[in-house]
Design brief:
Blueprint: H1 10-14, H2 27-42, H3 51-74, H4 78-104, H5 110-126, H6 134-149, H7 153-159, H8 162-188, H9 193-218, H10 220-223, H11 226-252, H12 294-301
Length: 302
């Protein structure tokens, strides 16, 4: 009895979202993938009329919101760049104040010179360095400014350097605010928060895929899953080819060291055989080493 060839409906295979290893994506790529999927899923109104699909979509959206929040916090290091910029401005104001006070130390006006000496001694007491850690410099400058606005207010006005004090205060407060903001952001970031959020997104994504694949088989006439499945498989193909494989290629690159085979070229040093030429001196019967010195010996025989 001839065997009956078994076939599988190609429509069933094609109407199914493929697999992708989300754990291999870096944080940025993972978030972008989930964002693309969520946006496309939200637009599938016909498919979302199914209560189970709607629930899966809502859970994915909620998980993505948490991942987004954690991802943004993880990128807060960008705040440090602003702190560095404001710190530089503050340093300029501080050095300007120091230079101004130092310049008045040799003032021909004795009263101004005396005021400068007191302010210089005040600066020397604090010994503030612009290379200090942000928090330490901020606190020290805040205390110095407080003294300038109270104890040394008269001397500041005498030298006319209050503009430096005002500008330094504004710059120092900006740095202080940014430092506080950064500390607050870090406080919200619990250990592994982003990793946990990613896992939640992955779980929601996997459930969504299972629901859509099931609808494509059982209720595709009403759910209209074809367009979404086509989009998903194209997106997965893109990430596999452009994102995931790039890492694999870097792993394969070590194979390039096969090039070391080139060192075989040293075979050319066959020239070293030339040193055997010294054997020619044998016709003289004398010591090979003295041959070069024979000409000078002739004068002695005369």
């Amino acid at each position: 009895m001839p065997e009956v060839e078994q076939t599988v409906s190609t429509s069933t295979i094609e109407n199914e979202i493929g697999n992708v290893d989300l754990t291999r994506l870096n944080n940025g790529a993972h978030f972008q993938f989930m964002k693309n999927v969520n946006e496309k899923l939200t637009a599938e109104t016909a498919m979302l009329t199914n209560s189970i699909a709607k629930d899966a979509a809502d859970k994915l959206n909620k998980a993505l919101e948490e991942e987004d929040r954690c991802y943004v916090i993880s990128q807060k290091s960008l705040l440090t760049k602003r702190i560095v910029a404001e710190d530089h401005e503050r340093d300029q104001m501080y050095m300007g104040y120091r230079s101004a006070v130092y310049g008045f130390l040799r003032s021909p006006d004795k009263a101004m010179a005396a005021a400068a000496e007191r302010l210089w001694a005040h600066l020397t007491d604090y010994r503030i360095s612009t290379g200090w850690q942000f928090d330490r410099e901020t606190a020290s400058i805040a205390n110095l400014l407080k003294d300038c606005e109270t104890t040394y207010a008269a001397d500041i006005n005498k030298l006319g350097v209050k503009a430096y004090i005002d500008a330094l205060k504004v710059a120092n407060e900006k740095v202080d605010e940014l430092l506080l903001s950064r500390t607050t952001d870090r406080g919200e970031q619990v250990a592994g928060a982003l990793r946990t959020a990613r896992r939640a997104s992955d779980a929601a994504y996997i459930r969504m895929v299972k629901v859509v694949n099931a609808l494509a088989i059982l209720h595709n006439d009403t759910a209209k899953c074809d367009a979404f499945i086509k989009f998903m498989n194209a997106e997965i193909k893109h990430y596999k080819e452009q994102v995931l494989t790039s890492k694999k290629r870097t792993d394969d690159t070590p194979k390039e060291p096969k090039e070391p085979k080139e060192p075989k070229q040293p075979e050319q040093p066959k020239d070293p055989k030339d040193p055997k030429q010294p054997e020619q001196p044998k016709p003289g019967g004398g010591d090979d080493i003295h041959l070069p010195e024979e000409p000078p010996k002739k004068p002695e025989g005369q």
